[in-house]
Amino acid sequence: MFRFPRIGRNPVVDPRGARRYTEEAHVITPRDVEFSWDGVPMHYIPGEPLATHVINFMHLVLPEGERAMSKALSESLPLIEDARLHEEVVGFIGQEATHASSHEGARAHLASIGLDTEPMTRKLEWMVDHVLGERELKGRAEHAWLCERLGLFAALEHYTAVIGEWLLHAKVLERKGMHPTMLDLVRWHGAEEVEHRNVAFDAFMYVDGSYARRVRTALLASFTLLVLLLSSLNYLFKKDPSKNKGRFWFLQLLSAMRRGVVPNIMLFLTEIPKYLDPRFHPSQLGSMDAAVRYLTRSPAANAGGTAS
């Protein structure tokens, strides 16, 4: 019989999360990755300027967002007494730091060959600092602000896990001849998003667990991410100095979605009901086996071993 979720604090760590992978503990740990950007062109998905900029959206937005996420998860650590979840959060924070620095490297390379991202980057840094940063709060207000950020990041991690699963299985990127370095970057990142897909959600549920906050932050995160995506694509396309980029970036986006070269933007609508289902848990997303298998053969993830 269906029961409505309790509105209010409902701390719980779903035992099915990463714990469902095997009876042994699957350790989430940062990997020491190495990328060489020599020879990566402006349009590293040949003949697909707009699809390239959809990937560039990750380079543009994720470094600042992932640092803010790591900060909130770090603040939650003293509140998490579950030893396994505590370990997962520590590993998650390490992975997010590596993601941020890797995408910054890609962003710096694109800037070096003529794609000016600095003005948009400054705006994103300002937004993250002023909207998602620390505030002069104490006591219950401080705790409520932490819970609000954890709710936002849990919802955003839902989307990154969905996109990560898509990247792992998108054979179209290989058929299109996507540059292998950039393909490895996004697939390595996507695999780790699937690998740690439950961590932010479990941390939110442990520290707070309010269904009302889960609904509110999911809707806010979805709307914000969609606006950021569209505004960033508009910016990146305008700043693209290539003469062969074509015109009408939005029509190019629709074409790329129709041909499956990028994920369909409708996921912003289709994923919300799944996330808001009271029975939902991120362990239902993606394939841990596919993620781990890719991580064992990723050139970048195996160039330097595992970070200590």
Descriptive keywords:
308 residues, 62% helix, 11 helices, mainly alpha, disordered N terminus, globular
Description:
The protein is mainly α and 308 residues long. It has eleven helices and no strands. Mean pLDDT is 87; it is low at 1-11 and 15-24.
Q: Whole-number average pLDDT?
A: 87
The shape is globular
Largest sheet: none
Rg over CA atoms: 19 Å
Assembly context of the chains:
single chain
Beta-strand proportion: under 5%
Q: What is the helix content?
A: 55-70%
Stretches with pLDDT under 50, minimum 5 residues: 1-11, 15-24
Helix count? 11
Instruction: Tell me the series of helices and strands, N- to C-terminal.
Output: HHHHHHHHHHH
**Computed structural class:** mainly alpha
Distance between the termini: 47 Å
Count of DSSP strands: 0
